[in-house]
Amino acid sequence: MTSDSDTQQGSVVFISYAHESEALRASVKALADWLVQRGCRVLTDHAYIYRPPAQGWQTWMLGCIEQSGTVLVVCTPQLRARYEKTAAPDSGRGATYEGAIVTQQIYDAAMRNTKFQPILPDDGDEGNIPTFLKPWWNGHRFPGGNDGILRMILDGSGDKPEKNDPPIDDVKSFTCEHERLAAEKLAAADARQFLVAMQQEFRKRFQSEPPCDAAAMVRWFAGRESTDVQQLFYLVRRALGPFPHGRHEDFQRKLAEEAAVALYCLAAMRLVDTAVARANEVRPGDYLLLVPRSERVICAIIATALFGGELHLKPVEASGELQPEYVFEVHIPVSGDRQTEAFERAAFTAVFENQADAPQKFVEAAPLTPRERARLAARIDDIHDRQRRIALIVHGLQRVEVAAGLARNHKLPVLFPAAEVPTSEFTTKLLGMDADRLMAEIGELSIYLTARTDFASQPPSVPSSSS
């Protein structure tokens, strides 16, 4: 995504929005990434989360508006208040300044406007559109209406999509690895009946038209607030329940369950507050994080939401409980001056403990040999290359900073449960749902995956290809 550019005006899009929540910031970034995948040059402030642009905010915003052929104004309650100057004077100066520029430019053009286009989130209220932009409201919403937004941009600039542009519902357009995984699973031909069941349940639950395809469904999930997650859990379970399973449908059932688990994980990730997570970092950039609980599945959800990758949950054969593939628990057996050696040795053991030549977990904390370091690096890199999320949950480490070297060198999240290290008040706020309830909700899904009895007498009907 570009942040400063001297490109042709018609090909540049600037997105103006108010920082109301991390969920909104994430959904705006998803829209920007989606447009970039389709050839647009998109300007947003996401590159300046930690440091302002060198030229200062006002000059940067004015430059973005001047060089853009289209300015998408994401209309929310706070944006309208700031654009119309009814918000508190010390809140949202960026959106307030952008609103002043937009208003003045429309006024200078004798109330003619082809540049500033109001858009709404899928569940947004038209009442949030600033009064002076309402004459140009044309029903564009995101992410469900991304296709229409792209057409509006291209029609305004005179550009046409390249012949080799990906189709609008191409699952490969996702930049988030887990969203792409969920879209691929849901778009599989043999999972179509599950997608249809999702759409039918969506109509009943939300009394509105559902996303039209697998990619749109995933984008809709990815744009939900943490307060919506419980309904997302219900949606997946109700859709999975009536899906037929038996000797002749085992393969289809397997693909439906894989899609359901991927969507369930995506929903759970919406519970993670990224702003709180940044406050909980031991040191920014070190991949060390304080977390509220030690359960592997909860730590996997947090790590994937913050650091990316695909999250794969698999039922444990004995119990049927869902557990992540590559989230390892590391137990430090010694204290004192050998904490670094003990941590590296225990991490090596945890990663390789299923191999016959793996050392015992609680052996003496001898430093890793060069060969062992190479083996550990190769294994971590291989897991990364497969887009899987790998993380360590560490128990018994007295000085958490000794894990920084391994974590930073391998971009490996190392998580410290709150019960074992001093934490801040933010730790318990990292998840938007009580941890015990989240574990219970994941347990409910596992029942649908391991029980092989029908939850409804009739499967959902599948429209013919001509419908």
From TrEMBL:
<dbReference type="Pfam" id="PF08357">
    <property type="entry name" value="SEFIR"/>
</dbReference>
<dbReference type="InterPro" id="IPR035897">
    <property type="entry name" value="Toll_tir_struct_dom_sf"/>
</dbReference>
<feature type="domain" description="SEFIR">
    <location>
        <begin position="10"/>
        <end position="151"/>
    </location>
</feature>
<protein>
    <submittedName>
        <fullName>TIR domain-containing protein</fullName>
    </submittedName>
</protein>
<dbReference type="InterPro" id="IPR013568">
    <property type="entry name" value="SEFIR_dom"/>
</dbReference>
